[in-house]
Amino acid sequence: MISLFLPNTNYMYSFMVDIRQGQHKREKIALRGSLGIESFSDNASIKLPKLKIFIDDKEVVASGKRLKNIIAGTYSLKVLVENVQKIRQIEIRPDSPLLVRYKITRKAPQAPPDNSNNADNVSF
Q: How far from chain centre, in Å, is Cα 14?
């Protein structure tokens, strides 16, 4: 039994290898995964606002909101939409893409808007 542990991300991977005397064995181990982040709305007339994405409090630039080559493990994912944020724990696993989806809604303004983007009316 061989176990690998990545302390920075708390990722543990174990596997069995049968090795006989004089034999060499090579195992390929994947330690990276990917994350996709999507936003959507039931209202087609709403222009979806830009998402700001943070992994472990570091802002990341996601090409098409897809992040590849993330070291396997547990992370804190923070997504900001205008002035609203959502934080959740995610687990990245090798060769198993994770997809996180956020539904964007805008509430009807209660009073005349005091700014042009109605940020106070956004939820997700």
A: 24
Identify the pLDDT of residue 25: 81
Tokens for 73, please give them. Answer: 């493990």
Task: Provide the domain limits for residue 103.
Answer: 30-109+116-123
> How many Å apart are CA 76 and CA 21, to the nearest integer?
45
Within a domain: 44:
yes
Q: DSSP state, 121?
A: G
pTM as predicted: 0.74
Instruction: End-to-end CA distance of the chain: give it in Å, rounded.
Output: 45
- The answer as to whether 47 is a domain residue is yes
Range from 21-35, 41-55, 62-76, 103-117 carrying the lowest mean pLDDT:
103-117
